[in-house]
What does this fold into?
Amino acid sequence: MRAPAGQRRFKKRKEFADGADSAENAADRFGYFPGDPFEVETMRLQAFHCPSCAGCLDIRPGAGRVKCAYCGNTLVVEDNAVSSSPRGVAAGSEADKPDYPEPGATLYTREAPRFEMSVIEQKIPEGTPDRFAPIELGDERFALVYLRHVDAKVAAVAYDLDAPFESLKASLESDGDPGLAANCALEDLCRRGYPHRLEVAVCMFEPKHMTMTPYNAGCRDAVWWVSNEEGRCCTTGSAHDPLERKFLRESRDHFENGRPVHLAAGDLFVMVSAGFAGRGGRGMWPTGLGTLTETLNEHLGEEPLRVVTLVKNAFWEARSRHRDGGEHPCGDVKIAAVRAILPPEADAIPGDGKIEVLKSRKFEVGMIKGPRDIAKLFTLHSDRQLVIWMSPQGGALDPAAFDRGAQAILEVLDGQTGDNDNPRCAGRAAYEAMKVGPSQVKMAVIQLLDCYGRVKYYRAGWKQPVALGPRGLKSDGQQQFDEGGEATVNPGARLFFPGPLEYEGEQHLAEYFGQVWSGGKASRLYEAMREHWKTKKTEVALAKLAKAAAADARLSNVVGMGLVTGVG
Ligand SMILES: [Zn+2]
It folds into this structure.
């Protein structure tokens, strides 16, 4: 998913948004200075959108001030941020009190290889300050952090935010544990005498398996997960109470993290400020939460830049219809959205493997064969077929040795042994007859029981297969033993043999595979597995899976990968 045409980056300007008239001020507001540590060469570029109406902007590079073609708002453009000017007070309002006027908004982005983030921010000068900022943690990890002080009645309090933010940041950078970082921030405050309570929300994003680990104390409903697989948004677990001094002594779970969430490609995490959520505010004015879930569900799959603006607009629209819409929000209105990005596509199957497909009546067996591999199809008695595939590791495979191994396999599966359905036993017999082991010759023995639509297999030196269903990931599963297994492979269903791919353990279901594979569920391979059924031809589907795996893990060779398709 490269940046579509029309996306651009702006030249650095010496102008800043309303209220941020210097670089220092901008750095203070955004938690970083646009142009410095966040900007790396590998960044992906998004299209710019109007923070007022979410319309797509077409701006000449270097333009400092532009008018939005859709809503006419005057916009200030700097680096990776666009700001709108405040909206005027609605004339002729029927309410006793005019609506609180919508302040100007600043929209900025953070783009990295695996995550993109957009934040929209509106200053409420009458509100209580809070801290809402992204933190870079190295190795492409980053965290989104929220901090605010409240009193015993959960009313917001203005108090030092710099010191707790710094100690939280230092702990996150060093140990990458959100709950521990919150503990450090509280400890630091209490060392200097702390009369208040601390609201902390942390979303920590890790690219290895594309997970988000949440921590939340006092920020109820502040973090939302928009799941493409679920087709809706939901919160990420419950929140602890706001942190107070005595929590440092209590042996309870105040600092426990939420369960890590595995992001699928296109999933969004959205974090909102207390000013948006209406947390601890006075009066009956509407919180933004109702409009938030509505807007997120309606715009599933849209890019973060657009989503944050649409959410912000829905918030102000709901306020203006409400009788308490004249009150100011209790703090700045801030909305951040983070989305997983797929790694760049690979355009070829890496290494010297070539695809070959062997066919029985009900199955196709696709293999990525190395130049010295030998694979043959044998017909057994009682409507059964057999694929034997051997792959030498260094050096050649003597055809006579292959024949010796094949003979041993056929004796078990086609002879008078009474063990005709035991490819595991057959594979072991082959190694014995050949006097080698899996470290010298990798082997797959795949028995195709055309009469039952079942597949039995033995694998040595390669990973066990993952079952795929006829319409995606959902399969009937399979039974696995240490070196083999069996599965019903109905028409359209598949067994994906991952060959040389490296990941933790053996995973026979795609769901579990997606939790341990490089890039997790937001990987090319997981996507390809989900989409496999749209490519009927085994050869083409196997090529797509191989390229996807190569894109995720930068592989140099995929010899040993295979795909069994049920063809009915
Ligand atoms: Zn506009």
In short: The two ends are 35 Å apart (CA to CA). The mean pLDDT is 86. Residues 304-321 form the longest helix (18 residues). The chain is about 20% helix and 25% strand.
